[in-house]
Specification:
Strand content: 5-15%
Structural class: alpha/beta
Number of helices: 7
Order of helices and strands: HEEEHEHEHHEEHH
Radius of gyration: 32 Å
Length: 245
């Protein structure tokens, strides 16, 4: 290769290096401008609105609260029932909707924000509520989480108004749970709550309102006993009635 060819090759190499260097500097400048535009600060005192993703398409809802407000009534339930994988949850949602229509603030596990510890939310709501409604069924007592919720409510002397989702046999109720429930009248006393929905809901409202009245008067018993639900239809004989069949 002659001297002239070597010289031309070196000139071309230098030219390429110079162009690459200029392009790199230009890219750095563009990135800096984009970052500066993206990090513009809001005026002093401005706050970021909470954004909640909702639904499969991830629609944005900036007006949803970060956590549920304090409820007056907390519902404890098992998602499934004996004959429906969603039976317990369906009844819970029905009761929650009816209670909300009556003016009560309710809370249940479906209201816990995604990714959060449901136990923390549930226990905090129970600590601040007036009444806990467990939805009793064989599936309820099979669940350790449901049993723990009932024990927690009893330990904190909450008024417990049980709802009988479906018939129960004595052997289906753990002895520890029976001790908690034997002084609370359930609605209905036998059968299924949905068998006579309107009448049973009226009895449930009577018990809830009486408990709230007792709390307002400072007359709630230390053990949270609920002994005021209608007995005329069930024929039960007293607060110690424990025949769960």
């Amino acid at each position: 290769m002659c001297i002239r060819d070597r010289y031309q090759r070196r000139v071309r190499e230098k030219l390429v290096e110079h162009m690459v260097s200029r392009l790199a500097m230009l890219l750095v400048a563009i990135v800096a401008v984009v970052c500066a535009l993206g990090s513009e600060r809001k005026p002093a005192g401005a706050t970021e609105e909470p954004v909640v993703l909702d639904g499969a398409l991830g629609e944005r809802h900036a007006d949803l609260p970060a956590e549920p407000p304090q409820a007056q009534i907390v519902l404890s339930y098992r998602t499934k029932s004996s004959d429906d994988p969603k039976g317990g949850e369906k009844l819970m949602l029905l009761l929650a909707a009816r209670l909300e229509k009556e003016g009560f603030r309710t809370f249940h596990g479906r209201q816990v924000p995604g990714g959060e510890d449901w136990r923390e939310y549930w226990t905090q709501q129970v600590l601040g509520c007036a009444v806990v409604i467990p939805l009793l069924s064989p599936a309820f007592f099979e669940s350790k989480a449901c049993r723990d919720e009932l024990i927690f409510a009893d330990n904190h002397q909450k008024s417990i108004v049980p709802v009988l989702c479906e018939p129960l046999k004595n052997e289906e109720v753990p002895s520890g749970m029976e001790m908690i429930l034997q002084s609370r009248n359930r609605v209905p006393d036998q059968g299924r709550f949905e068998d006579d929905l309107d009448a049973n809901f009226a009895s449930l409202l009577e018990g809830i309102r009486h408990q709230l009245s007792m709390i307002a008067d400072g007359a709630v018993r230390e053990d949270g006993e609920t002994n005021v639900l209608a007995r005329s239809r069930s024929g039960s004989t007293g607060p110690g009635h424990s025949d769960l069949v």
